[in-house]
Amino acid sequence: xxxxxKQKQIMAFPFTKYDALICDGAIRSGKTSFMMLAxxxxxxxxxxxxxFGICGKTVDSTVKNIIAPxxxxxxxxxxxxxxxxxxxxxxxxxxxxxxxxxxxxxxxDESSFMLIQGRTxxxxxxxxxxLQPRSFVEQALSRCSVDGSKLWFNCNPDAPxxxxxxxxxxxxxxxxxxxxxFMLEDNPSLAQRIIDRYKSMYTGVFxxxxxxGEWCVAEGLVYSFGETNITDEIPANGEYYISIDYGTxxxxxxxxxCVLGDKATxxxxxxxNSRKEGSMRTDSEYVNxxxxxxxxxxxxxxIVDPSAASFIEALxxxxxxxxxxxxxxxxxxxxxxxxxxxxxxxKIHRSCVDSIAEFGLYRWDEKATTDTVIKENDHAMDDIRxxxxxxxxxxxxxxxxx
Length: 402
Ligand SMILES: Nc1ncnc2c1ncn2[C@@H]1O[C@H](COP(=O)(O)OP(=O)(O)OP(=O)(O)O)[C@@H](O)[C@H]1O
Ligand SMILES: [Mg+2]
Prior knowledge:
By secondary structure, the chain is an alpha/beta fold.
């Protein structure tokens, strides 16, 4: 196995004067895998009968992303006896003379938080630390009371004002932490073809963070949208969907999509702004608008803003459509939509003037400390995001990180 220079620095970290190691940077750049390997080796060399923490976003994701790959590593199997106890979420590692326990915790699992409060640990590895609640990370660190215990962190970058950047990366020196920055090239196992594929999966701020590994602000327009995203053609056939962002005082936006393979065209839309029109519409009036939008098309599914309970019910009562509540994960949805726009998986018909206008207005909130969009001119933007998050992402290859 070829090992990069950065990865060798991970292996050498236990032999330095540093108390903590921080590896940040690009996705798939070889951080987690080598950190886990070096973490276990260091624990087995220096301790016996101690307990360690391995923390990820959730217990399940940590088992899948860290424990399972480690159990399959011939390097580890040759060196140790490994026992994974699924019910206790512990990995027992022994080398014949020494034995240590590595317990898995998930920062987003409430029960894990309670559990870690009662532990005394001789070291922790925190994977994807920027995605974890700060309170959980601090709790985990405060449990490391055994003499000589070291802290191991890794993550992809986020906003510059993110607490982990402010409190750890910028203060690495005063916290006596070794900071290693990873790029895709630091993983010797990635072929150029794979690197190119990863690069095509991100745009804008997500490209800067996940590919270039920079802690940077989400600023300016959310989407880079232009003439290439607009079409004058309406596909002759395909599967039809409608996506809806509901509003009574705020605008109501609905788009009709034609999907062929991994390409989606927004062929028609309706947009009702009660403030501008001077009167509010009822749910049944909105239902009629949707029925009119669907006229002449065999619409498979209607994807609706999950908070619009009464409208969803009214739409279901027509027995005309299968109605789905949308996946409303904002940042993932924006990331996926950006890629679909860039790679030509989404086209907007020139007649859809309200969504075209919003693409030119929808902005990040630069004053916010975390990634936040300004909640204005976001109605068609939301219905498009619902469509991508709930339908299109399953039709387009490479939209998701893993
Ligand atoms: N030196 C190497 N030799 C062979 N395979 C490697 C090497 N380094 C990393 N890999 C493999 O490359 C993949 C990505 O590595 P890893 O999961 O450590 O990256 P990461 O930086 O943690 O990524 P992410 O930020 O996406 O979590 C893994 O499958 C890992 O086993
Ligand atoms: Mg990782």
